[in-house]
Design brief:
With 93 residues, the chain is α+β, with helices and mostly antiparallel strands. It has one domain: GMP Synthetase, Chain A, domain 3 (2-Layer Sandwich). 25% of the residues lie in helices and 27% in strands. It is built from 2 helices and 3 strands. The chain has helices at 37-45, 73-86; strands at 8-18, 22-31, 56-59. A 3-stranded mixed β-sheet has the order 1-2-3, sandwiched between helices. A hairpin with a 3-residue loop joins strand 1 and strand 2 (22-31). The protein is globular. The model has no long low-confidence stretch (mean pLDDT 90).
Length: 93
């Protein structure tokens, strides 16, 4: 669904562990044009059910994929695991 947003060139959504909800959707986005995290999150809110609302957005230079083009979600989950262990990021809901 994020692929329909005019400011996104590529995207991946991965479940991020959350103490309260178990897991929240977190988007990794490659920008096509300038856009803010809040704009992306508001755009998703107007088009999805509440349980699908994004817990956050991270802008990246590229989405990590295998040679056949499949998104390597494991890489992003490992990032969340390291951040959780370090206590660096908490989803703002």
């Amino acid at each position: 669904m994020l692929a329909a947003h005019p400011a996104t060139a590529d995207q991946a959504v991965v479940g991020k562990p959350d103490d309260r909800r178990g897991e929240v959707p977190w988007a990794f986005i490659v920008k096509k044009q300038e856009v803010s995290k809040e704009e992306i999150m508001d755009w998703v809110k107007t088009r999805t059910s509440k349980y699908k609302h994004l817990g956050g957005v991270t802008f990246v230079d590229q989405i990590v994929k295998n040679p056949s083009g499949k998104i390597l979600k494991k890489v992003y989950r490992e990032l969340f695991k390291k951040e959780r262990e370090a206590g660096a990021i908490k989803a703002k809901l």
